[in-house]
Each structure stands twice: as C-alpha cells, then as structure tokens.
Design brief:
The chain is mainly alpha-helical. The protein has 3 helices and 2 strands; from the N terminus they run E-E-H-H-H. The longest helix is centred in the C-terminal third of the chain and has 12 residues, at about 50-65. The site of FE2/S2 (inorganic) cluster has 12 residues, from loops.
Length: about 80
C-alpha cells in the first residue's frame, strides 16, 4: 500500500513516531493549532524536520475543511 500522508493514522513524524491522527487531536483541543504545537507536544520537527511540510499541509487543509472529512476544523467555512 502506498504511503498516504492524508490517510488517518498514518505516521508523519518518523523520528518521534507521531501520526496525523495525533496531530489532529492536538489541533482540535488547542486554542491556536499550529505545527509548532506539535513540536512542543511531541518533538515533531526537532530532529530531521522532514515531517514539518506534511504537517503544514495537513493543518492548512484542515483549516479549509479539506482534511479529514470526519473531523472538520470548527473554523472551516466549507
Ligand atoms: S520526521 Fe519529524 S523530526 Fe524527523
């Protein structure tokens, strides 16, 4: 099966074994969702940082209501 960073449960940060579902949970309960928050909570981006652009894309798509469909951002307009 191909690696799909948008598939729920997929490990995005390999260095610290953090999934996109963990990121989503953190963003849902945060006042100010950000990729930096994932760094503070899970150390994402503190080693190779290859996960950062993927988390940035997921966060942007989540804010736009494009990812994932079952847990839309409360602020997403569409
Ligand atoms: S994959 Fe996240 S810090 Fe390396």
């Amino acid at each position: 099966m191909d690696w799909d960073f948008r598939r729920p449960g997929t490990t995005i940060c390999v260095c610290y074994q953090v999934t996109n579902s963990q990121a989503l949970e953190a963003w849902l309960s945060a006042d100010e969702p950000s990729v930096a928050l994932l760094g503070r909570l899970f150390h994402c981006g503190n080693h190779c940082a290859l996960c950062v652009p993927y988390f940035e894309t997921l966060l942007a798509q989540w804010r736009q209501g494009q990812w994932p469909t079952e847990n839309p951002c409360p602020d997403a307009s569409g």
